[in-house]
Amino acid sequence: MNSRVNKLPIVLFLFISNLCIGQIKVGKIIYERKINLEKEYKNDASSLESLKNNKIKIEEFELYFNDTCSIFKPIISDIPDKMSWATKQNTTYQNLNSRTRTVLMNVLGQEIIVNDTLVKRNWKITDSKRMIGAYDCRKAIWYKNDSTRIYAWYSTEIIANTGPEGFSDLPGTILGLATEDGGIAYFAKSVEILIPTTDNFLIDTKKKKVYTPAELNQKLIEKYGITDQGKNVIERLLRWL
Questions:
Q1: Residue 125: inside a domain, yes or no?
Q2: In this predicted structure, what is the pLDDT of residue 41?
Q3: What is the pLDDT of residue 40?
Q4: Residue 66 placed within a domain
Q5: Which CATH number covers residue 169?
Q6: Which of 48, 89, 174, 224 has a 20 to 30 A CA-CA distance from 159?
Q7: What pLDDT shows up at residue 7?
Q8: Nearest-angstrom CA–CA distance, 33 and 59
Q9: DSSP labels, 96-162
């Protein structure tokens, strides 16, 4: 009984500190992801045929964060999803101190774990700004390669160095993330100040095969080959690794 009473002032202090300082250090963010499936499968004629009446797929994710770690994971609906095959819903845990990450993903009908260090991205911060919800955000651009740009909108009002799908390395939390063609976009729907519990950060790694990104890439090449269609499948699976 006493231990519970003693913890209460600490929780209140942390919560009030976030409000007083004006920068959010702990909390939960709900994101909505929209994927244009026509763009996603533009090089896959057989899949496009089955997507005639399902051009846009909308899913929700939640991000828990504090000053040492974050986890981004799907919000699973109770309603059966006939289009579940069309998109991937990864869970990404990041340790912001050790700069390591653990990704839980489904590949070839099997849940696997990918362990790696955090990806270092060289962002170009622009002068462009926009509001996402109640938060002022600044736009940054990452040149993934010669033909691919990723846009991010981050807010310095939320100081955790994190965002959707393990994106990070900006001076605030990423509240918006999109591919250049707009085919995939994540935008925050709500931000809640709360102190995440240990359970919020748990990933079930038991009895799951563990890979590095390089090992998984090699396994997928062996499965799908290096044809254009195979490369498209691998790119979709490994997009955020």
A1: yes
A2: 84
A3: 87
A4: yes
A5: 2.50.20
A6: 89
A7: 44
A8: 5
A9: TTTTEEEEEEEETTEEEEEEEEPP---EEEEEEEEEETTEEEEEEEEEEETTEEEEEEEETTB--S-
The pLDDT value recorded for residue 46 is 66
Q: Give the H or E element holding residue 224.
A: helix 213-224
Both tokens assigned to 20? 């007083």
Cα distance between residue 53 and residue 49, in whole Å: 9
User: CA 155, 159, 165, 170 torsion: positive or negative?
Assistant: positive
Residue 87's alpha-carbon distances to 16, 193, 227, 237, in angstroms, are 39, 30, 21, 9
> Is 55 part of a structural domain of the chain?
yes
User: Considering its fold, how many domains does the chain have in total?
Assistant: 1
The answer to whether the CB of 200 falls within 8 A of the CB of 107 is no
pLDDT at 132 over 70: yes
Q: Which domain holds residue 196?
A: 25-208
Q: How confident is the model at residue 48 (pLDDT cuts 50, 70, 90)?
A: low
